[in-house]
What does this fold into?
Amino acid sequence: MACAVALALVFLCGAAAGALVMDFGVHRTRIPSFETPAGKALYFERMQKELNLTPAQSEQMQSVLNDFWQYYRTVLSDGKQRVEALLNDEQRAKFEKMLQQQLPR
It folds into this structure.
C-alpha cells in the first residue's frame, strides 16, 4: 500500500511540475509566420541549409520566394477586400477584430 501511495505521489508531482513548466511558457516558443520579415529570413535560412544551395541558387531562391510572398500578400489583400464588401458595418468591425486575434504575437 505504501509503495502504491509513493508511486502515486511521484506521478502527481511530475504532472504538477510539467503543468507548471508549460504555464511559464517553455512550450510557447512561436515560430514567426512566414509573411513576416523574421519568418521570411528563417524560412530562407532553412531552405539554404537543408537544400545546401550554392550562392547562385540562393540568390535565385530568394527572388522566387520574394515573388511568392508578394503574390501571397496580394491574394490576402484581395480576399479581405472581397469579404469586407459582403459585410455591413457591424460585421466588418467584428471581422477586423477576428483578424486582429489571428495575427502572430
Summary: The radius of gyration is 23 Å. Residues 1-28 form one domain.
